[in-house]
Design a protein that fits this description.
Layout: E1 2-4, H1 10-17, H2 21-27, E2 29-33, H3 35-43, E3 48-54, H4 55-60, H5 62-71, E4 75-79, H6 81-84, E5 96-101, E6 117-121, H7 127-139, E7 144-148, H8 157-163, E8 171-176, H9 178-187, E9 191-195, E10 201-202, E11 212-216, H10 225-230, E12 233-236, H11 248-258
Helix pairs in contact: 7-8, 7-11
Length: about 260
């Protein structure tokens, strides 16, 4: 384990920079915080650049640190508490951070023979919503999450925390051109189901037998018209009270479970 005692250490400077999207994109690395996330990444054989633990965490969890060092194929750094604390994004940090590598995947490379259900997000802006939908898609048995250009960054600290570890379980492809992807996936024989308040049927009236893509749109403007026009089904969740609509992550929770391949 390598000891870091200076704020000027180049590894710590990189860790701080990775809070910004441009540096995550440049280095193809994102931040994972917390014991559960780091252990899960290691168990999933995820490629990691480095792991940082606070001095107090190392002292209180010496066996765990030893086990992580044996399993992880990257450098592990021990950092003085007052230095590492400034880097954490959470209010009550657990004392361990990993820098995980972002997998660069093109949607054309996916094995669609084994991919039953896909979630497509069109310009979803809130990272909390994005992370929550990723978590729900993982829980409901979806195979792939595709994010259009204009979506929030799924690898931002807030979005990663909101996934509660599901970012490590479900395959994610970001920054996709909507028109090209929709044309591609329709050619693959997928039904397209879009959540929409206009001209739509109650979601309970639609039952799926084959492969499908479930689409959710921007929190303010919804799904863009070209995607709606290409959809096989437009579905809505009935509103029984006075609210105009549901939060997109809540709507996703209802629809993703209804259209789950395991349902």
């Amino acid at each position: 384990m390598i000891l870091i005692t200076s704020r000027e250490n180049h590894k710590l400077k990189l860790l701080t920079k990775l809070k910004q999207k441009k540096y995550r994109e440049k280095h193809k690395i994102f931040i994972l915080e917390g014991i559960r996330s780091v252990e899960q990444a290691i168990d999933n054989n995820m490629s990691m650049e480095s792991i940082f633990v606070s001095a107090s965490f190392q002292h209180e969890n010496s066996k765990m640190c030893h086990d992580i060092a044996k399993k992880a194929s990257c450098e592990i750094y021990s950092v003085e508490d007052n230095i590492l604390k400034t880097v954490f994004d959470t209010v009550t940090p657990q004392g361990i951070i990993a820098l995980a590598k972002i997998e660069d995947v093109d949607y054309a490379s996916i094995d669609y023979e084994k991919t039953r259900r896909i979630v497509f997000l069109d310009r979803v802006q809130d990272p909390g919503n994005l992370g929550t939908i990723a978590r729900t898609a993982d829980a409901a048995g979806y195979d792939l999450l595709v994010l259009s250009k204009g979506c929030a960054d799924i690898y931002s600290p807030k979005a990663v925390r909101s996934t509660m570890g599901s970012i490590l379980n479900i395959k994610i492809i970001a920054n996709v051109d909507s028109k090209n992807f929709i044309e591609f996936i329709k050619d693959k024989g997928y039904e397209l189901i879009s959540s929409s308040l206009e001209g739509s049927s109650n979601y309970k009236c639609v039952q799926l037998q084959g492969k499908a893509v479930i689409v959710f749109g921007n929190e303010g403007s919804g799904i863009e018209n070209s995607i709606l026009d290409a959809s096989d089904h437009l579905v809505k969740i009935p509103i029984y009270g006075k609210a105009e609509s549901l939060n997109v992550s809540v709507a996703a929770g209802i629809l993703l479970y209804h259209f789950s391949p395991e349902y």
